[in-house]
Design goal:
heterodimer; A: 4 helices; B: mainly alpha; elongated
Chain lengths: ~130, ~130
């Protein structure tokens, strides 16, 4: 009996946009943003190890307002991706997959990441 | 390699064992990263805008240096696997696929190596 090729998911062009679908896409986008942003962390450490002019340059870069905006975005992306990861841990246990529960997990993910980012920046930076 | 081969169940595209390893390691490194996020936040806040001497004294503390190295390894592996999956999903032309996977490995390894070398330098040579 000949097997038929399994259909590939058509991805974005066909499916109705749902909250969990949007969260999954954002999870991937934040992951990619963090991938690029980790360069900032390592640049900071390497500049500290090198000392001198590179270190002053990096500190100045992160101290200025464009650098602060990038760091704010990075910290939100980090928290959102982390809470998204927690959603996956919940699903790994086979819980939270029903119609209402998965939407609530997504809402908690988004709200927690936004609130915690704002709280952290308020408490530690904008005092 | 194209979509018809990927979709054909007889082709057994992909490695079953590697995919299982990927699943497990992605969750292990993810949990590790989550546990260390508080540590990372503390470190950044503590050393934001600090003088180099202060950075050396904080990072040179053995616990801080060790945790930072572990974090760098865990983050590198996690992001290596994550971007591998993105490349598998979107890049289908064979040569571009292999190039992208190679660049990904290079970037993840460079992040880990440069990061750990910097921490080691700070710990042992100040």
């Amino acid at each position: 009996m000949p097997t038929h090729p399994r259909p590939l998911s058509p991805h974005l062009s066909v499916y109705r946009f749902t909250l969990t679908m949007a969260m999954s896409i954002v999870h991937r986008i934040t992951g990619a943003a963090l991938y690029a942003g980790t360069l900032l962390l390592v640049a900071w450490l390497a500049a500290a190890a090198w000392g001198g002019a590179p270190f002053e340059a990096v500190q100045g870069l992160f101290g200025g307002w464009p650098g602060r905006i990038v760091l704010f975005g990075y910290s939100w992306a980090l928290l959102h991706h982390m809470f998204g990861g927690f959603r996956y841990f919940v699903w790994d246990r086979g819980r939270g997959m029903e119609a209402g529960a998965r939407e609530w997990l997504s809402r908690i993910n988004l709200i927690a990441s936004l609130v915690l980012t704002l709280v952290a920046w308020t408490v530690f930076v904008w005092r | 390699m194209d979509k018809r081969i990927i979709a054909d169940p007889r082709a057994h595209y992909g490695s079953g064992r590697f995919d299982t390893w990927t699943f497990i390691v992605q969750r292990l490194t993810g949990a590790c990263n989550a546990a260390f996020t508080g540590f990372l936040a503390w470190l950044v806040v503590r050393l934001a805008g600090a003088e180099r001497a202060e950075m050396v004294s904080v990072v040179a503390h053995p616990l801080v240096g060790l945790l930072l190295c572990l974090l760098l390894v865990s983050v590198s592996i996690h992001m290596w696997i994550g971007v591998r999956e993105i490349i598998e999903d979107y890049v289908h032309e064979p040569r571009v696929n292999r190039l992208s996977l190679g660049l990904n490995t290079f970037y993840a390894a460079a992040i880990a190596i440069v990061g750990i070398a910097s921490v080691v330098k700070l710990v042992f040579w100040g």
